[in-house]
Write a structure and sequence with these properties.
Protein name (chain A): Transcriptional regulator
Strand content of chain A: 35-45%
Number of strands of chain A: 6
Number of helices of chain A: 2
Distance between the termini of chain B: 21 Å
CATH architecture of chain A: 2-Layer Sandwich
Radius of gyration of chain B: 18 Å
Structural class of chain A: alpha+beta
Order of helices and strands of chain B: HHHHHHHHHHHHHHH
Number of domains of chain A: 1
CATH topology of chain A: Alpha-Beta Plaits
InterPro entries (chain A): N-reg_PII, N-reg_PII-like_a/b, N-reg_PII/ATP_PRibTrfase_C
Distance between the termini of chain A: 22 Å
Shape of chain A: globular
GO biological process, one term (chain A): regulation of nitrogen utilization
Oligomer: heterodimer
Number of helices of chain B: 15
CATH class of chain A: Alpha Beta
Order of helices and strands of chain A: EHEEEEHE
Strand order of the largest sheet of chain A: 2-5-1-6
Pfam families (chain A): P-II
CATH class of chain B: Mainly Alpha
CATH architecture of chain B: Up-down Bundle
CATH topology of chain B: Na+/H+ antiporter like fold
Strand content of chain B: under 5%
Largest sheet of chain B: none
GO molecular function (chain A): enzyme regulator activity
Radius of gyration of chain A: 14 Å
Chain lengths: 103, 312
């Protein structure tokens, strides 16, 4: 599409307990913003039905440039993968108004 | 059996039978806010009638109890149960802290039987919530690098966690407003309390049954611990209650507080402070075993034990 600009979408699906820490982390690491949603699902940590506190999961989405995406994924890999339930992936997306997310 | 315990049983059975019954997460959240505030308000209102200096020695003794329980639980789990340090400490922390809902059920038990109790006991609930968690974290970090503990964020989590803010806040509001000031709130916070508690217990039944599958992997030792530890703690609570001159009703409440294990405040704090610990173990023990045990068998058992001391 001619009117969109390439951008990275970093998606972190993890425990609700980490939301505050992660929010601080990604902003410190260069993100311009993020979106968080409450989610539920199933994975290697069992059924996370999201009905009560210890069982809640969130999905955090960050649109950013390549270097910030690398910084964020490297950081969460080193800090959280070992002890927390976390799925992280990066997708190539096209955004409008690229200056909102990069630089 | 008391009606409110049956709501827990209903939720538990419904989930086991794979019913599609599910309480909205927002309702659960709203109910827990309501229950914590109501318990705080009621305690604060009664506290306003007390001489604060008279309660002070009792309060200090209760804090010591909160520190003692995880110190007893930890070696049992670490040495006998062969849990690693992190898991032993995290589970011990859960048992040092308290379950608000178990307390509410015990209060209802007393009211249903016309047994008087010191109505300011929610103060002890507030006091017992924190020390267990702090001791649990300390035990997890002992021998390791103490500098790894982020005390700032841990204290923030413990003192400004929502259950603490609501309980302590309710207590302060109740204390400041006094019985007269709280009169307009009576229908909402006190008259409707039991109904809200029933709904909450229905949800706890659903959650507990949902977690019950984890029992298979957590091992027999943990199950035995989750049944035995509450009784040991309750005995400590009974001895302390008698020593600080509480009535039979008050002693039963203190015993129940000591016997209960946290599954709301402690899991949240431990997840951040001791990430190495497997949260499934503590939650299975506290919620799937200890909570129903206290609810259905523990409270009547502690009542018997208290009656032995108080002679009826």
């Amino acid at each position: 599409m001619p009117n969109t600009h390439p951008c990275k979408l970093v998606v972190l699906i993890t425990e609700r307990a980490l939301e505050e820490k992660l929010s601080r982390d990604v902003m410190r690491l260069g993100a311009h913003g993020y979106t968080v949603a409450d989610v539920r699902g199933r994975g290697s940590h069992g059924d996370r039905s999201g009905t009560w506190d210890a069982d809640r999961s969130i999905r955090m989405e960050i649109l950013c440039d390549v270097s910030t995406a690398v910084t964020i994924t490297t950081h969460v890999e080193a800090t959280y993968f070992r002890h927390y339930a976390m799925v992280a992936f990066v997708a190539d997306v096209g955004v409008l108004r690229p200056e909102k997310f990069a630089g | 059996m008391d009606a409110i315990a049956l709501f827990f049983v209903l939720g538990f059975l419904a989930r086991l039978a794979r019913s599609d019954l599910k309480l909205p997460a927002q309702l659960y959240e709203a109910l827990s806010i309501y229950l914590l505030l109501a318990i705080g308000l009621k305690g604060g209102m009664e506290l306003a009638r007390q001489d604060p200096l008279a309660v002070l020695p009792q309060a200090s003794a209760v804090i010591v109890l909160g520190i003692l329980i995880p110190l007893i639980a930890f070696p049992i789990l670490y040495k006998l149960g062969r849990f690693d340090r992190f898991n032993a400490a995290a589970i011990a922390g859960h048992y040092g802290s308290v379950s608000v809902v178990t307390f509410a059920v015990a209060v209802d038990y007393l009211i249903a039987r016309d047994i008087p109790y010191e109505a300011y006991l929610p103060l002890f609930l507030v006091l017992l919530e924190m020390p267990g968690i702090a001791v649990g974290v300390l035990l997890a970090r002992l021998g390791g690098n103490m500098r790894e503990v982020r005390w700032g964020s841990l204290l923030h989590e413990i003192f400004l966690g929502k259950s603490m803010v609501l309980l302590a806040g309710g207590l302060l509001i109740g204390w400041a407003a006094g019985p007269d000031g709280l009169k307009p709130l009576q229908p909402f916070f006190f008259d409707l309390f039991k109904g809200a508690l029933c709904l909450f217990l229905l949800e706890m039944g659903l959650v507990a049954a949902g977690q019950a599958g984890a029992l298979r992997s957590s091992g027999l030792f943990l199950a035995g611990f989750a049944l035995g530890m509450p009784v040991v703690s309750a005995l400590l609570g009974i001895v302390l209650g008698a020593a600080i001159g509480l009535s039979a009703g008050g002693t039963l409440l203190l015993a129940t507080l000591a016997a209960s294990a946290s599954y709301i405040a402690a899991p949240a704090a431990m997840r951040i402070a001791v990430p190495e610990a497997n949260p499934g173990l503590s939650i299975t023990a506290a919620l799937v075993i200890t909570f129903p045990f206290n609810l259905l068998l523990g409270i009547p058992l502690y009542h018997r034990l208290v009656s032995l001391i108080h002679g009826g």
